[in-house]
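Subject: complex prediction, re-run

Hi both,

The earlier run crashed halfway through, so I resubmitted it with identical inputs.
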Amino acid sequence: MSAVSRRGGMAVLVFDPDDAGYLSELADYVAIPSVSRDATPTVMRAAAQWLVDQLSFANGHLVETAGHPVVMGEWLGAEGAPTVLIYGHYDVQPTGQLEEWMSDPFSLTVDGEVMRGRGSTDDKGPVYIVLKVAQAFIDQEGRLPLNVKFLFEGEEEIGSPHLPAFVAEHVALLGADLVISADGAMWRPDEPSLSIGSKGLLSMDLVVTGAEGDLHSGRYGGVVANPVHALCEIIAGLHHTDGSVAVAGFYDGIAALSDERRGAIAAVSFDEQEFLEGLGLRQGFGEAGYSLLERLWERPTLEVNGVKAGGKYTVIPHRAVANISCRLVPDQEPDAVVAALQAHCAAITLPGVDVELNVDPARSRAYTIDADHPAISAAKVALASVYPTQEVLLAKIAGTLPPVTLFEEFLGAKTLFFSFSTADERLHAPNEYLRIRRLREGMLAWEQLWRLLASGPYRLQPLAQRESRISDGE
Amino acid sequence: MSAVSRRGGMAVLVFDPDDAGYLSELADYVAIPSVSRDATPTVMRAAAQWLVDQLSFANGHLVETAGHPVVMGEWLGAEGAPTVLIYGHYDVQPTGQLEEWMSDPFSLTVDGEVMRGRGSTDDKGPVYIVLKVAQAFIDQEGRLPLNVKFLFEGEEEIGSPHLPAFVAEHVALLGADLVISADGAMWRPDEPSLSIGSKGLLSMDLVVTGAEGDLHSGRYGGVVANPVHALCEIIAGLHHTDGSVAVAGFYDGIAALSDERRGAIAAVSFDEQEFLEGLGLRQGFGEAGYSLLERLWERPTLEVNGVKAGGKYTVIPHRAVANISCRLVPDQEPDAVVAALQAHCAAITLPGVDVELNVDPARSRAYTIDADHPAISAAKVALASVYPTQEVLLAKIAGTLPPVTLFEEFLGAKTLFFSFSTADERLHAPNEYLRIRRLREGMLAWEQLWRLLASGPYRLQPLAQRESRISDGE
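This time it finished cleanly. Structure:
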């Protein structure tokens, strides 16, 4: 295996030389349709139990919450070594329109160099990589190089509504020197990258109502306000024509982009045309004065994710709903953005309709980790051992991983994003997939990362006061 | 029965004094979920067969079309008497949101003075009335007072796509001196009214597409155009702020409202506030310069009936669709309105999205019948026999009955709307209902109408050349 020589004499694990076993095992996991938005508790529990079974070496077990259960485990046999908390999730997004899938979303389907299926890249495949690495350490070396705790939740795709209480209640049990997230994709398939930030998230429903019930559009058309027209007028008013957000106060508090950051972004090798063509688009669109990458990484957004009212029959729908989400950047206070949106909607006076903005309680701030944090340095070396000819890019995640701000707040631990998913793998969309080679690349990289964090120049400094014992009274 | 004395010595039929039998029989018909938009052919055929069985006295039978079958029948034993063609439909609208129904839409449910169920008022109940009148004539007098043909279609709620070809191919078989429609509601429950016109109809889908597939709103938000935003911007631009249509050319050719017509409308007893309160609204809305009734009866409309894209999950939907319909008034040429809409959409240039307007092929003009047409006079007298203390109001149907323009074009026959449905009975909406008393009132009125059209001062002039024989070679 050529990777061995690259790793400068460090001990190496031997992984299965044939993908078939991995693919078959992962297919069992993908086959459990653990759509947190609408699956039954039985289905969600089956997915959680699949992880518990994989964690037999670490006392894997379910912990109940007010929602879907959390899977926990820990192997703490590396006395004096640092402790990491591995985070991931076993829930998946809804499939969307089934007819847009080329194969059954819950049958992992190998198609050339990729495997397709809901959860393949978000987040079942990336979590599977970590499990295999840990099992290989135990099988081949009898131990892990450092202390490892596992926390896999079942509600990430619905905004982790019960994770805050869970983390708050289990601070000592979860305590670690670093969180490593198996969730959060790399930016591009052809280069290794690390994320030094992610955006925050607000979700809400904009609801416009008119009459008590749907009205026949012939019998009432032209005489009463149509809630669909009103909803569209409001949505049209949320952005300026360049795509920037037109809600007063939305951008308040955001520091201007520094020349340094602008320079660093401009230096990234990025072919905008190729990026857009890959999406089937002829042109991009967005806030004037910022490059595409600047908008993606550094600017907050407000996107309407869905609209629904009536149908193809002659009614004036009495209710029209838009599902909206905002991605926030550092310095944006979620509650302040909510207040700005509420004020914007309260100022709307459209005759004959009522307008309501219902903001979901789960609200996440943006997150950042310093580019010179030791975990970033170790991760760079680990990636270099697998991708020796390519420089590691420091990118940002324009998406949101709400748990990371929780870990910072309650555990005082930064999170390293170390996923082998890639942002182009149709996350949240039909035909989600994972590149098969990433399974093996991920295993090699995780192995090196753990070795690097355990000893040598990138060793994490274990903080004794954060060390947990299961017996500490929780 | 007090009605007898009112009818000035004309022969009278005796209807069942107890509603139970009627309700039970009608419940069987409503129980067949003949939603033309999506029911199976078997279900549609079951509803058609129910009518065939009721038409045993008139050689009822199915006639195939390229869509759902047509039910036909005729009783032509009144030699020398005029011939009327009775029109109605056996299909119903989709239920809409089931959770908004107070009872199963396909279980006819008596609730105080009304019976609730999909099709109860549009159009199963009103058709049932005619069938019972015809059967009572046959049972009690051995004959009908005039020649009667029956044509019940199964595609009215989807714009009667196959009726034009059917009527064109069966001109002789359908020929009549007058069409009487059992479809097309009276305006208000507390006064008798006749409609002297109905609006035309155009239906279309406005489709905005962006990327090839849905995109994760975190990973692509702010950098590509969102088709939902674009769709809403287009919809917001379809109307001026007063609700009038902003599409250039939309109003072309429409004659100004005459002072006489304005005066007649102003003279109608109408409590706008009560009308709006009945819908759960505090205020109306619509084109400036016209009263509510003027807008309802005399002005064309463009209403968005539905919108659909994405959902409550973090995507940028790649496709957003609006279902739109226009109601047309006399002098509006459907094809010219289509051209104006196409030109409006073609002029839209929004970066990063494609805009398409797909107009349905079925297009109906507006329809009018003179207020002094003999059929209107006869109908006034028939209504007066049932509602002796109330003046008959001449109203218009703001909705559309596409078949009536066909009958005029191909059969040269005007259509009298003579339905005992009322416009407030939640047509096309959840909890559709029919007032139970209207069954009996309708039977009495139809009986008188047929007698009046057959002989006496309002007798229709039969046109020999239109008389059909089943044997005439079709």
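Chain B has a mean pLDDT of 92.

- K.
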